[in-house]
Every structure is written in structure tokens, then in C-alpha cells.
Amino acid sequence: MTSVLVVDDQDLVRAGFVALLDAVPDVRVAGEARNGLEAVEKALELRPDVILMDIRLPELDGVKATERILARAGPDKPNVLMLTVFDLDEYVYTALRAGAAGFLLKDSPPETLIAGIHAVARGDMLFGPTITRRLVEAFTQAPPEKPAAPPALTGLTERELEVLRFVGTGVPNSDIARSLLVSEATVKTHLNRLMTKLGISSRAQAVVVAYETGLVRPRDP
């Protein structure tokens, strides 16, 4: 059973998501929040598996709320699925940097939303290589302010660099395992180790690091 916190400032939209998820047998709505501050409070209180988070919220936007939640959640961090009106929303890149597991358009079909919740609950990202490249293309054309010191890759092993390069181009663990002739469990081990070394907590953040450090370029195949 996957527990979900639904965060949206529009009552009708939020009620629609709740009604939809209530009809899914293996999903439980843990709670609702109307703004970013309430989302942080409810997330730490209810400890949901997944947070369905609108990017644009009053009081505290979805990106900042995500940062606070993941910083305070401890080892059992929720997987945050951001909701946006536009597929290249100005906040999408910063949401991924903050640790969101992916994003969905608000007008996505119900089956897409449900599949997305299941995907991020498993620890997967919700977007593939095409969307990843589009996001990074947009970033390179109009870059937001970068951190003063991007994470260095010098502490990673050659195999960890290979895994990070695959992750950076949106390749799932199963395909990485086939390419490297190892098991998916081994890929997950490498991924967990490299994220620990880089001080990041999500696969989406690993994608950002791969691009920011130049390990992957926007037009790499």
C-alpha cells in the first residue's frame, strides 16, 4: 500500500486527485495540504511514501517545500512528484535539483498519474531521456544561478562514473545492468554509493550533477 500526501491550493483540483486516488486499491491518501508550509508540516507528521506536490503554491512554493521536507525527513524520505501546468515550467529544473523524483503535467490522464505515483514509490524517475534532455537544453540556454562549488566527481570510481553517466541520460537500472553485464542490485549499490559520495539523495539530483559537472552534455546520445 502506497500512502500519498496531496498538495494543491485549489480545493476542486485537490479534491479531484483525492477522489481518483481513493479508488485505487493499493494507494491510500494519507492527507491533504493547501500550501507549502502546511505540506511541510503534514509530510513530517504523516510520513507518506509519495507527495503529490503542486509547484506553484502560496505561503511557500513547492520547490522550497520539497527542500525543507527532504532536509528534515531523515532516512525515510518521501518521493516527491511535482505537478506543473507547463512541461518546461521555469521551476522544473530547480525542483529536480531540490530532490523531486520527477514531474507530471496537471492535465495528465488518470492512468498516467497513478502509474507515476507507483513509479516514484519504487524509487524511479518519472521522465525519460527525451524530457531530461529538453530540461537541460532549457537550462543551458537560460541557466539559473549555479552553486558556488558543484559537486566534484574525483572521488567516484570508474564504474560509479559509468553508472552516473547512464543515469544522467535517463537510462533505467534494468538497461544499465544489461549494458554493464551486472545485476540490477549491483547497479543500485553503485548508485547509492555515488549519491552518498556526492551528498545527494535522489536519482533526479544525480541527473542534475551529471549535467552540471559536464559528465553528460545536452546533446550526448
Automatic annotation (TrEMBL):
Q: Does the keyword Acetylation apply?
A: no
Q: Which PANTHER family match?
A: TRANSCRIPTIONAL REGULATORY PROTEIN NARL-RELATED (PTHR43214:SF24), TWO-COMPONENT RESPONSE REGULATOR (PTHR43214)
- Protein name per its UniProtKB record: Response regulator
Q: Which residues form the HTH luxR-type domain?
A: 147-214
- Native species: Amycolatopsis speibonae
Tell me, what's a Pfam family for it?
Response_reg
What keyword terms does UniProt attach to this protein? DNA-binding, Phosphoprotein, Transcription, Transcription regulation
Q: Which residues carry this modification: 4-aspartylphosphate?
A: 54
Q: Which residues form the Response regulatory domain?
A: 3-121
